[in-house]
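Handout, section B. The chain below has 251 residues.
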Amino acid sequence: MQSKLRDREKQILQLLYEEEGISLQKLCDIFNVTVVTIRKDLDRLEANGLIVRTHGGAYPLYDKELMDRKKENAEEKMRIAKAAAEMISDGERVMITSGTTTSLIPKYLYGKRNVHIVTNSTLLLTYSRMNPNVSVTLLGGEFMSDAEALTGSVTLRELDLFHTDKAFIGCDGFSLSGGVSANHTELAEVCRKIISRVNKLYLLSDSSKYDKTGFAYIDKMENIDTLITDSGLSDLGASSLKKIGVDVVRV
């Protein structure tokens, strides 16, 4: 989303996160531009689904911490998501968990036909809503704003209704000793349930999360069929993972 924005629009978005209720006039003063110019900037931000306009100002739609995570290793995340999309075939049904990398997968599904996604990620909708060849089943549950995810007992119960050949999950850490982990117990629960409902498991993670352990355990690394990561993962790390049966794809 933010990659399409102009520099001033990115700065305006940051200011909206930092100062709740910042006025239209103050934005004009900061950037030394007219009200008309700022209104056009806000119109573009709203059109990109990043803000909601109010009388005399605007407020951001997404949690600031989430947007900060989206910007971390952004290029690597895009390459990883693109590689994952290439592993999805026409007519396939897949599960995709919430996450700043996994949510990018639909962005690279243009050209595919009749792909059906089951997901707990509301962020994923940003990249799938305009693709007529991608159908999305959005699971119910409690909304977690800092992850743009649905979690809880309803989510887990609805997952029992589905089974797919492939699932693509994210994480906050992965290692030989600590396995795959997340920073939220609710997200870890959803991942564990999805793992029980699929045949082949893909883990998407940038290399900065290697040898790190999150708060909540998801599964052991041996149960990951394919790890899609970036070229920052060392040869030694890749070799160690391959020895336990993980197919490692570095992009």
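Note. DSSP finds nine helices and 14 strands in the chain. Compare this with the example in section A.
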